[in-house]
Structures are given as C-alpha cells and as structure tokens.
Specification:
It comes from Knipowitschia caucasica. InterPro entries: EmrE-like (IPR037185), TMEM42 (IPR039632). There is one protein chain. This protein is mostly helical. It is built from five helices and no strands. α1 packs antiparallel against α3, α2 packs across α3 and α4 packs antiparallel against α5.
C-alpha cells in the first residue's frame, strides 16, 4: 500500500510542475523579466555590464518558452504513468484520487510562491487542512471485506 501512496504523491507533484510549466511557457513577460533580472545579477557579480541584456533576453525567451512547453508534456506523461501505478498498487481508487489531488494542491501552492511570488489566503489553508483531514481518514479506514449474502442469490 505504501508504494501506491508514494506514486500518488509524485503524480500530484508532477501535475503541479506541469501546470507551472504551462504558466511559464504561455506567459512570455515573466520569463523575459527573470532573464533580464538574472543577467543583471550575473553582470553585477562579474562586474560586467552587458549593454544589450534586453536583446539577449529577446533571443532567449523563445527557447525558454519552448523548454517549458517540453517540460509540460514530459511532466504530464510521467504524471499519468505514476497515477496509473498508484491506482494499480492501491487498495482504493478514492484514496489514490484524493491523495493525488491534495498533493497537487500543496505542490501548486509552494511552486506558486517559489516561482511566481504568489501568496495563499488563510481560507485556502483552512480548505487544504480539511482536505488533508479527509486524506488521513481515507488512509486510516480499513478496507471492508465484501460479505457474501446467500439469500440474495437467484437461481435461474
């Protein structure tokens, strides 16, 4: 059962990475700003000022967007593979689905704050806490064995 949970957590994380990659590949201004900021920082550390850092970023932002697009498709493919493995190794598809979703929400929050500087509201954290409570209840509940009722069997 543990490998199913691990696969579900990884699937949720990869889904969050894929969505962040999509946001990066479709939002050209953010990548261009990061490129300019990085070149400025690199130039200050090297005591070298590159006069046309904007033109370098104009050339670099297209390959960076394509790289993020490739990362999007790669992460989605690996995410679906891990989700299939999680479903195969888990005793309940509900456990796998809820675990993957919770992992995706939390990973999205951390990646959003790390990459984009987004902040989550208190209500969001209350909601994710309730989701985690549900995940714990699902994982702690023992699966019930199906009972065989001989009274319900029909003789044809």
């Amino acid at each position: 059962m543990v490998p199913g949970v691990v696969y579900a957590l990884l699937a949720g994380f990869l889904g969050a990475v894929a969505s962040s990659s999509a946001k990066l590949s479709l939002g050209a201004d953010y990548l261009k700003g990061v490129c300019e900021s990085g070149l400025r920082t690199w130039g200050e550390q090297r005591r070298f000022r590159h006069a046309d850092e904007t033109s370098a970023c104009d050339r670099l932002h297209i390959p960076l967007r394509l790289l993020c697009g490739g990362l999007l498709f790669t992460c989605n493919a690996v995410m679906w593979t891990f989700l299939a493995k999680a479903l195969r190794n888990s005793s309940s598809s509900a456990q796998t689905t809820v675990t993957t979703t919770a992992s995706n929400f939390v990973s999205s929050a951390f990646l959003g704050q790390l990459i984009f500087g987004e902040a989550q509201m208190t209500l969001w954290w209350v909601g994710i806490s309730l989701t985690f409570t549900g995940v714990l209840v699902l994982h702690r509940a023992s699966p019930q064995e199906p009972t065989a009722n001989t009274d319900d069997k029909r003789e044809d």
